[in-house]
Specification:
- The protein is an all-alpha fold.
- The protein has a single domain, classed as Orthogonal Bundle (UraD-like), CATH 1.10.3330.
- 57% of the residues lie in helices and 0% in strands.
- The protein is built from 8 helices and no strands.
- α2 crosses α8, α4 packs antiparallel against α8 and α6 packs parallel to α7.
- It is globular, with a radius of gyration of 25 Å.
């Protein structure tokens, strides 16, 4: 019988293990760091993407995620399940979309008036995902969207707003954990 099959004999022979080469240390990916972070740290990361504690806690409690698409799918699903109070919480933390620095004063005035009309009608800040738009298209897109959405009834606008928040959250989360580094809003 070979020596390696006699582990309980006092004079057993060890089978030499080839010396392992030193592996270069693997730098954790942003998703890997998110998966292993404390619950408080993961929640803070998520709240920077969408300020809903229910959404953040749900995503935190389902870690680890095998890859970014799985996390984004879970984020999307969790956003669909937000209650009206959760949406109100998330909307309260949103800020107005930033305009390009070289925007004319008249455009700022028009946009400020449109935002004021929107907030007066719906009681919360206007949110819109501008992902994929060039800065040159931002102003026209935002003004057109506000004017169009002002015609919505409050229930319809709540659905549109929730959809925009889902887009914003996924974009911010993708930026934060896909390597761009943070959840800074671009809306």
């Amino acid at each position: 019988m070979p020596a390696h099959r006699l582990p309980d004999l006092p004079s057993r022979v060890a089978i030499p293990v080839p010396e392992q080469t030193r592996a270069t240390p693997v730098t954790a990916t942003p998703l890997g760091r998110f998966n292993t972070a404390s619950a408080e740290e993961a929640t803070r990361t998520l709240l920077a993407c969408l300020s809903s504690h229910a959404w953040a806690h749900r995503l935190t409690s389902h870690r680890p995620y095998p890859d970014l698409p799985a996390l984004l799918a879970a984020a999307d699903e969790a956003a669909y399940d937000l209650s009206p109070d959760d949406l109100t919480e998330a909307l309260a933390a949103e800020t107005l979309p930033a305009l390009p620095e070289d925007t004319y004063a008249a455009a700022h005035t028009a946009l400020s008036a449109a935002h004021a009309a929107y907030e007066s009608r719906f009681g919360h800040v206007f949110v819109i995902s501008l992902d994929g738009l060039s800065p040159d298209e931002t102003l026209d897109h935002v003004l057109t969207a506000i004017r169009s959405r002002l015609a919505n009834d409050p229930d319809e606008e709540r659905l549109v707003t929730a959809e925009e928040l889902r887009h914003l959250a996924k974009t911010r989360l993708s930026n934060a954990l896909g390597g761009a580094g943070n959840c800074a809003p671009r809306h």
